[in-house]
Design brief:
binds ligand DP6, binds adenosine-5'-diphosphate, Alpha-Beta Plaits, four-stranded antiparallel sheet, ten-stranded mixed sheet, globular, Ribosomal Protein S5, domain 2, alpha+beta
Length: 455
Amino acid sequence: MQIMKAMEGYRAYSAPGKALMAGGYLVLDPKYRAYVIALSARMHAVVRAIEPKESDEFEINVSSSQFNGDHWCYTLCAETRYLPLEKNQKKNPFIEMVLVNVFKYFQPQRASKIEVEIFSDDGYHSQSTSVTKRNAFKQFSYHGKSITEVPKTGLGSSAGLVVVLTTALISVFRDEMDLQNVKNLQLVHNLAQVAHCQAQGKVGSGFDVAAATFGSIVYRRFSPQLITNLPEHMDPTYVTKLQTLVDDINWNISNARVSLPDGLKLVMGDVNSGSETTKLVSKVKCWYDSDPVRGLKVYQFINRKNEEIMTALTELNGLCRKDPDKYEVMLRALDQNEESKIQQSPEFSKIRKAVQEIRLKFRQITQESGADIEPPVQTKLLEACSRLKGVLTGVIPGAGGYDAIALIVTAESNLQLQTEGREEFAAVTWLDLHQEDVGVIEEAPLHYQNFIELT
Ligand SMILES: Nc1ncnc2c1ncn2[C@@H]1O[C@H](COP(=O)(O)OP(=O)(O)O)[C@@H](O)[C@H]1O
Ligand SMILES: C[C@@](O)(CCOP(=O)(O)OP(=O)(O)O)CC(=O)O
């Protein structure tokens, strides 16, 4: 009772990370669709508005205490058109751009102090020297370094942060924030895309923000001009243009919810190095532009294969509902690595063949563009993985490179056990993650209290 009282006025939200299983590079163009899996690693925000304030200045304190006690303290007010100022000139462009856009969109007048606590699940960062703290509901890792210094695994921490923080702040300005309501999700998504693009200083495809909002989806992007056409923040027309963009314009994105077929799960293996997506993207763009006719042909080929994968996954979803016995036999064949039986399943064969063809094309692009999309060491690793029991297929998700690998495997398989002590898997840490259907959700504020260090 005492605790419940102390939690009054708090709200909590979480949003998932992502793995782009099919559609890397192509998804930058609205012509092509991508298959995006939302992950169980989540970013969390607990928010409380303490009203009202004597002055007309809002004060927004954001803390991320897992990262050596990181915190940012912003002030802003209507007179300065909600330009956020950080007390100690500490930079966090993602937090800053969320504040700019949410405040400009809502134009709140009655100043208040707002406190937000950010938490992030383990999957987002390498955990080498962290300390675990837990309560009865959740546990988080605490690092001795600041957020910019802890190595990332590439699951989309900034997109998760932007989505969850946007949601938390909207909940301060809106009484109703039901996240089952599509309109509310669209509001979160649109504001978060604008903030994320502005913070990154570029317009990516936005699949990470879409997955953090909507969950596992087949995604088609918005036209980049929707965001690049916005004027500067201080332009007097920014507010109305932002409001129109967020509320009235059809972004034409696709975000149809998907789920891996029953009995299959996603496994991610961190290879502990990482790649710079921006550099890879610009090298691939140069390659494409050097011969656009050929580039288009290659993209169209890869796109057909991406679509084949998506169709086969849908067919598997149907099969496991219509003929669960047959489906079960197929899964057991995968579990036992019985090649002749696996080949009798047209869906499994289609997925494996399409992935092989896509990977082959990306290896060619790797050679021709100099962008390490599938470097030989990752090819070797994926080949070794494909020989393990229970593995349907595997890719280097997203932009590829030296990032984590993603495998689709049977729910029963245990890769940790199969790979332990084996030389060819020495570089891999299997991440404790799974696919999740849903995007941003409301959480119980009570679950984020009184964390105790494990000894
Ligand atoms: N837990 C967190 N607390 C505060 N800021 C965070 C957190 N996680 C991510 N960020 C912000 O996102 C940035 C990382 O974004 P980015 O380089 O795009 O990585 P990613 O690929 O994981 O999204 C950090 O430098 C920081 O500004
Ligand atoms: C090349 C891309 O299509 C996919 C990149 O996927 P990653 O998952 O590698 O992305 P980051 O988290 O931004 O590093 C670019 C894009 O879609 O924006």
